[in-house]
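Input (structure):
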């Protein structure tokens, strides 16, 4: 049986992980890439699906600063909800989040709907939770005007590098 103190600590850990993910998404949306990168461990694996796979904070930094910054001056808005957080032990957890996003890249005169799932792993380092693995499984990436009823996926992983988002 768990003690009241253990239950409180677990609830505090859940809230800390939720806050970590909120800080990551808010930082991405606001273009505060250093703050977003700080939510990861040094050797994190970040798999953005059609937008690439990045191993480590420095690889993520290069992607965000070069590709993303160059292509966006219009804001994106990411909505996360329905988190499912499970603990392997006191310093390792996994989470699944539903994601909906709206984005309008500067390189094209189109807006996009995007939806999918984040599947994450978190580790507690020096008393602080960090993202150790992030993977997005896209369900929808479609032009706003077409909508997901007519076009579920505007492009696939093989299009990466050719897409102008």
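Output (sequence):
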């Amino acid at each position: 049986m768990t003690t009241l103190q253990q239950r409180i600590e677990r609830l505090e850990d859940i809230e800390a992980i939720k806050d970590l993910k909120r800080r990551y998404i808010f930082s991405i949306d606001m273009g505060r890439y250093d703050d977003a990168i700080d939510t990861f461990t040094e050797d994190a694996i970040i798999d953005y699906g059609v937008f690439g796979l990045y191993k480590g904070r420095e690889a993520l930094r290069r992607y965000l600063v070069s590709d993303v910054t160059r292509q966006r001056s219009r804001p994106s808005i990411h909505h996360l909800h329905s988190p499912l957080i499970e603990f392997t032990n006191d310093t390792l957890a996994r989470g699944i989040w539903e994601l909906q996003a709206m984005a309008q890249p500067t390189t094209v005169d189109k807006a996009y709907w995007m939806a999918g799932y984040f599947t994450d792993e978190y580790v507690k380092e020096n008393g602080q939770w960090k993202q150790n693995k992030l993977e997005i499984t896209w369900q929808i990436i479609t032009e706003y005007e077409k909508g997901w009823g007519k076009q579920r996926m505007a492009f696939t992983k093989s299009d990466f590098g050719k897409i102008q988002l």
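Notes: Residues 160-165 have pLDDT under 50 and may be disordered. The CA atoms of residues 3 and 82 lie 27 Å apart.
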